[in-house]
Specification:
The complex is a heterodimer of chains A (148) and B (119).
Chain A (H helix, E strand, L loop, with lengths): L7 E6 L5 H15 L3 H22 L7 E9 L2 E8 L14 H6 L6 H9 L2 E7 L3 E9 L8
Antiparallel strand pairs in A: 1-2, 2-3, 3-5, 4-5
Chain B lengths: L3 E7 L4 E9 L4 H13 L4 E12 L1 H16 L3 E5 L3 H9 L2 H4 L2 E2 L2 H11 L3
Parallel strand pairs in B: 2-3, 3-4, 4-5
Antiparallel strand pairs in B: 1-2
The chains are: A alpha+beta (148), B alpha/beta (119).
């Protein structure tokens, strides 16, 4: 299991050109935690979507705000928290779209939230508008994962 | 080093867009510009070759959604080809195979277009 895993964190400025750095950070951590390449890719994409939402919605493309990404091992799961202090954006109260209907109307919004919920085992939100918003993504190591 | 590249090749009645690198919120505007140019040039038969596309997020997928309606209104289509399993999985998760024709090989997509083109 992930006995040696420890808490990691990274802070970036709210620009889309920093997404690559976030993905590399999360990929390394996911591999070290013991996730397969396939599972690690899912985690990376989910965190990218969370950060992209912060840049677009919480900070509305302001380029100099901060996004903190904290990775924590919690028993047999990896928990990634994406933290911002922008405008609250709470997709958890929005109904998950009917994907087929969504696509047939050529809607492009909301796909990131759908992906996060599909790719991760748990997606939780915490809000204190203008102070601290959190999206917490959890992925469990399953029995099929190679254990270290 | 460029992290994302869009390259256009025009054949008889069909334009092929080659994507290379990662398509995320940062690079999606490059693909938007490429589609915008195709539409201004009235090129509506489009094959997007994803052979060298290493990563896609919803911002990238959103670009395809943004243009497909206009392209189809003009009797064209956006067909996709040569996806790696990793990239295909993301398209698949979002139900894109219902909306887009996805081919293993670029040539198959081009042939499909040619079959529908007027002589």
């Amino acid at each position: 299991m992930a006995a040696k895993a420890q808490k990691l964190s990274k802070t970036i400025e709210s620009r889309t050109d920093n997404l690559l750095e976030v993905r590399e950070f999360v990929l390394r951590a996911s591999r070290e935690f013991g996730f397969s390449e396939e599972e690690a890719s899912k985690i990376v994409l989910a965190v990218d979507e969370a950060c992209t939402n912060v840049i677009k919605h919480a900070y509305q493309f302001a380029p100099d705000r901060k996004i903190e990404i904290v990775i924590r091992p919690v028993k047999d799961s990896m928990q990634i928290t994406v933290i911002d202090d922008g405008t609250s954006f709470n997709p958890s109260i929005a109904k998950l779209p009917d994907l087929k209907q969504h696509l047939s109307h050529y809607r492009r919004g909301g796909l990131g939230i759908y992906l996060m919920r599909t790719l991760m085992d748990k997606v939780e939100y915490k809000y204190a508008p203008g102070k601290r918003n959190e999206v917490r993504l959890t992925k469990y190591l399953t029995a099929s994962e190679p254990s270290a | 080093m460029a992290d994302f590249k869009v390259h256009q090749r025009d054949g008889e009645g069909v334009s092929v867009i080659d994507l290379k690198g990662y398509l995320d919120a940062h690079t999606a505007p490059d693909l938007e510009n490429a589609f915008q140019k195709l539409l201004s040039d009235r090129k509506y038969n489009i094959v997007v070759n994803c052979k060298e596309l290493t990563y896609i997020s919803s911002a990238g997928l959103g670009v395809f959604m943004a243009f497909i309606e206009d392209v189809r209104k003009n009797q064209g289509d956006i067909k996709l080809s040569n996806m790696s399993p990793k990239v295909y999985n993301v398209f698949d998760l979002l139900g894109f195979p219902i909306l887009y024709e996805i081919f293993k090989d670029e040539q198959e997509a081009v042939v499909r277009f040619r079959a529908t083109l007027k002589p």
